[in-house]
Design goal:
mainly alpha; two-stranded antiparallel sheet
Length: 244
């Protein structure tokens, strides 16, 4: 029963994540069919709106980074069973994003607006490409392990997950963090940039740069000289071709 519950929890957490991920795309893209979007929702005076929005970005960033660190995981798994640790992380990250969606305060002041149809279509294409890079990159490493499903499935079957091996498939040959690169592209590529959208894009980009520093220290600790050598031949967020 415990293993069945663990599996059910992991599947439920993944379902919440995937729905939240799809909503995030619609939120950033200002999809007209959703109740809350980056440029649509309850309005507040801009200093209050900016303070609320920055707090929401910080809430997501702190949860996302702190819970991913090894010392926190070691302490956390004294409370939460190890097989569901990743699923719990994914669920809480999704809940932080849901809080951001609901309490986000738009700041509608225009920063830029692209009127040329061809250029606007190009920006929308880059927006879509960014999200596609994010999704494809998760599958290039191990999508189901990244979001906790492999852990609960292996636990339910009584199997151990093998130790991680260093691999650089496809995008990872040239970019060390293609998932983050896809997010940056998706956040910034828009034909109509408002002050609120700019705040979201800038805040998330700052968080991503901070997160990369923490992740790279963890990866060096895990893979040692192999990852150090990789850093010389692949770019951080931009592709580096022909690196040795």
């Amino acid at each position: 029963m415990a293993r069945a519950f663990t599996l059910l929890f992991g599947v439920a957490a993944y379902a919440v994540f995937f729905a939240t991920f799809l909503y995030l795309i619609a939120f950033v893209g200002n999809c007209p069919s959703i109740p809350y979007a980056v440029d649509r929702g309850p309005i507040a005076q801009w200093p209050i709106a900016a303070a609320i929005d920055l707090a929401l970005i910080a809430l997501f960033g702190i949860q996302h980074s702190v819970m991913a660190r090894a010392p926190f995981k070691k302490a956390w798994t004294r409370i939460v069973p190890e097989p569901v640790e990743r699923s719990m992380y994914v669920l809480l990250a999704s809940l932080c994003l849901i809080v951001l969606f609901v309490f986000w305060r738009p700041i509608p002041s225009p920063i830029w607006s692209v009127e040329t149809p061809a250029l606007a279509y190009l920006l929308w294409a880059l927006f879509g490409l960014g999200w596609l890079i994010v999704l494809v990159s998760t599958f290039l490493i191990n999508h189901f392990e990244l979001f906790g499903l492999r852990q609960v499935w292996s636990h339910a079957g009584g199997h151990e997950i093998p130790a991680p091996k260093f691999r650089t498939p496809f995008f990872y040959r040239w970019v060390r963090h293609p998932i983050y690169a896809g997010f940056v592209l998706a956040f910034w590529a828009t034909p109509a940039m408002t002050a609120g959208h700019l705040l979201l894009a800038a805040g998330m980009t700052v968080y991503i740069l901070i997160a990369i520093g923490h992740e790279e220290r963890d990866l060096v600790g895990l893979f040692g000289a192999e990852y150090e050598a990789y850093r010389t031949r692949a770019g951080k967020l931009l592709p580096k071709f022909g690196g040795r």
